[in-house]
Amino acid sequence: MAAIPTLLPSHEFREALRRRGGDTASRCFQCATCSGVCELAPDEAPFPRRLMLLAQWGQAERLAADPAVWLCHQCNDCTVRCPRDAKPGDVVQAIRALVIEKLAFPGFLGRLVGAARASWPLLVGLPIAFWVALLAATGHLAIPVALPQHWAYEQLVPHVLIYSVFFPAAGWALLAAWVSGRRFWGLLAAGGPPVSFFGGVVPAVSEIATHKRFASCDAARPRRFGHLTLLWGFVGAAVTSGLLIVGIYVQHLAMPLALTHPYKVLGNVSAVLLVIGATVLVANRLGDGRKAGAATAFDNYFLTVVALVIVTGVLSEVARLALTPEFALAVYVVHLGLVLCLFLTFPYSKFAHMLYRSLTMVHQLGGAEASRS
Amino acid sequence: MTAAPRPLLVVGGGIAGVTAALEAAEAGRDVVLVERDACIGGRVLRNHHYFPKLCPPTCGMEINTRRLERNRRVRVLTGARVTACREDGGGYEVTITHAPAYVTERCTACGACTPVCPAKVKDPFNLGMAEVPAIRLPHPHAWPKRFVLDRAACPDGCHACRDACTYEAIDLAAVERTETLAVGAVVLATGWDPYPLERLPELGGGRSPDVISNVQMERLAAPAGPTGGKILRPSDAQPPRRVAFVQCAGSRDVNHLAYCSAVCCLASLKQAIYVKEQLPDAEVTIYYIDRRAPGRNEEMLTRVAAMDGVRLVKGKVAKVEPNGAALALRLEDVDAGRIVRAEADLVVLATGMVPRSQDTSVFATVIDEDGFAVERPGLAVAGVAHRPEDVAASVRDATGAAARACIAAGRSA
């Protein structure tokens, strides 16, 4: 006699889901309206209905391995149409937060950032305090007496300090992300058909660069614009940082660069994109609740840190040009702390969607690639 | 007490109201039955067949009208509404407003007026799916058997019908009049309206003539309907090859009606039988969330599910969009776990029932969160006015409401 498969509902998972903003999952009566309206759901593996069922039964393992969790862009078309107000968009958002926590390496950091509702002062305050302490210890909390009129931040905080903090921080974030990414890729690949990783990368990058999928979500037009603008702002800022390193050590350019210098222009254009993108996203979050979805502490933590990084970054430049060096230094220290916070919590915060969603798209498109060849 | 006991007032001449009035009258009570339409029968008479026995409702209504004719205790006021109500200790004092009687009781329903009438109106009996002369018999089984005139549609100065009438039954100058009655207790049986198709644009409602409601489907199948009982696509009057039923269209949905309307599953199963009887080669698909066929209705579910060319698919239809001459449906087939893109020639939205709470407000009735009237002593509620239910349940319900009203009126008499 064949064994009857047993399904053990995890009450812990359901409790965690409830705490993290997915409590409406229990309202779902499996009508499947959500899957029917979802423009992103693959025909052969539709969602979110399946995810709602798995959430109700507390199937944490299956959810962690389910690509649908990341294929969802939370446009909330499903939430708008849900006949039970079960808010599938919010539930899947809460599932994503729990998957990030589950796959985090090391686990305690995942839990720490996962508890952002309580831990945010620590998450934000510690990196800022670290920078204040570092500058105090190296004698850089005071403004140098011989500061020229057109000073550069390098004269307040030497580049070597920046490198000695951010290169290890970035390295750590990448290592943690790599471990989590490997875990996730293993779950996605388990038992499935062969997938060509490299075959998937090119189409995935092309889709991400244009936010093609986001465009098919009816309820989320402003969010797509904001998100895409923010993405390109970050890309521009990262490219600017790389170009500046080349400028300083290869081209031996004198800092500060003139506002008309191409690198400066790129940096400032990126800043404008970041400001526009963040403004749209924050406005959306504060706007129509049902379409925007519920704002959990985990989401707000990430969006707030991103917004503050942008605000302090722009303010640092304004302060250098127009305000006092003392004020500029204060803003800059906070900015450095927030950027450090963003780096260190990348694999554990909502920022990690970049890792998991990208991998999921690579897996999906790589599978199509592998089956074609 | 020497004064005669006050009569009961029954508001609404559908199956629940007629039943309540008859039960109270046959128990010895005087009853005033008020119906806003020109004839009694309400929603029930617009059905082609009842489920689960699949017999025509005219048969049951004929028994009821015969009971009415034999019973002198029921005074039936058609074309009338209760427009004011005051509690007076012994029950209610109500004001009844009679619509102008353009066609009087002298009418013999000879039909001489209809051919001369130059004006056409949308036929309310057929839910606007056909045009009829402004003066006509409302439908073949109208009781009282008297013509009605849609006066607003008359051309200026036209009196062709009056000239044609040999019984002097037409009074084009008739005016509204009111009367006041003291009643001992009230039975509210104000019934329901179909949920409007236009509120369901995502399901094609109001966007394609070939997306119809279940109540319209009843008219398509009925011999007195706009097509003479032939099931035809409204757009091109061709028989549909593929018919899709969308269950819970605007029901069990917090964006529309939060409750289950209780009859739509059986109505669609019944209508699937209409289609297969007329068009044996048609493919019928019923898309559902749950198949709610309680009690003996389950036999009908089993029977229809076993029919060739009928499929029941679990999954709420999410979108219906015109696609050329056909309609494209999108849903998740829950059992198969995949997205289905289906085509249909005719889509029937199984829309729910909306209680006519606007008709109960004159009684200062408490309305629950779904719009249904809540009963109170001296004010009994029957039929869909207080809960969604099928015809058989409405009839049972009406008997109980009549009994409660009799008891309340007896106490106050």
What are the key terms here?
heterodimer, A: 373 residues, elongated, B: 413 residues, FAD/NAD(P)-binding domain, Alpha-Beta Plaits, 5-stranded parallel β-sheet, globular
Textual characterization of the structure:
The complex is a heterodimer of chains A (373) and B (413). Chain A is elongated. Helices cover 68% and strands 0% of the residues of chain A. Chain A folds into two domains: 11-103, Fumarate Reductase Iron-sulfur Protein, Chain B, domain 2 (Orthogonal Bundle), CATH 1.10.1060.10; 107-372, no CATH class. The longest helix of chain A is centred in the middle third of the chain and has 31 residues, at 159-189. In chain A, helix 12 packs antiparallel against helix 13 (262-286) and helix 13 packs antiparallel against helix 15 (297-322). Chain A has helices at 11-22, 33-37, 49-56, 60-64, 68-71, 77-81, 88-103, 107-114, 116-137, 159-189, 197-210, 221-249, 262-286, 289-292, 297-322, 325-345, 353-372. Chain A has 373 residues and is an all-alpha fold. Chain B folds into three domains: 8-99 and 176-191 and 356-412, 3-Layer(bba) Sandwich (FAD/NAD(P)-binding domain); 100-174, Alpha-Beta Plaits, CATH 3.30.70; 194-352, FAD/NAD(P)-binding domain. Chain B has seven helices and 24 strands. In chain B, the strands form eight sheets. Chain B has a five-stranded parallel β-sheet with strand order 3-2-1-11-24, covered by helices on one side. In chain B, strand 2 (31-35), helix 2 (57-70) and strand 3 form a beta-alpha-beta unit. The mean pLDDT of chain B is 95. At the A-B interface, helix 2 of A face strand 18 of B.
